[in-house]
From TrEMBL:
One Pfam family linked to the record: Endo_dU
Protein name per UniProt: UPF0215 protein ENO36_01375
PANTHER family named among the record's database cross-references: UPF0215 PROTEIN MJ1150
Organism: Fervidicoccus fontis
Family in the record: Belongs to the UPF0215 family.
Cleaved signal peptide residues: none
Amino acid sequence: MSISLERIESYIGLDDGMFLKEKSKWTVLAGVKFVGTSWIDVAFTKISVDGLDGTDSAERTVKRLMVNSESAVIFLDGITYAGFNIVDPDELSARTDLIVVAVFMRRPNEERILKALKLHFPDWEDRWKIIHRVSSKLSEINVRGRTIYFYSSPNKAGISLLIRKNIVTSKVPEPLRIADMLAKEIGKMFVRTGKGIST
């Protein structure tokens, strides 16, 4: 990957909507694109609850937001979406040729995660492999008195500065804050109406 941090033009945040356990098969994945501190575009797709399409859904959303070959950083809210549907930051980076940064507000509890995976998923080893690879290589920074953990693919010096640069009104990068807000509201709408997600 030849992207330099100095050439970054935009930032994309990805987050998922709410869903009903035992009932929902899908929820929404929201992607929000920022240039500087300005929110300029949004894209939505569906992601299956506890499925295996996390990286595919993330890639599809990102490509809807990209223009030509512009440089961007993708911010993920951790790597588990729609339950235990995993977005692999290394695979997403390879597919999009963009820097991917997974942000965690707390360090993942590997023991608890592994126990849950073994209990509920026959393919737990495949999911665990990605989770352990990421959680074992987390970096940390302190922002406004709170420790934030992150994983970057590729692991470039200066990522912590990009995270700080994008934290404006809360303790998470602004693209993630807006993506979370939109995904939650749309997810609530689908839960209330009982309508599926078709995009």
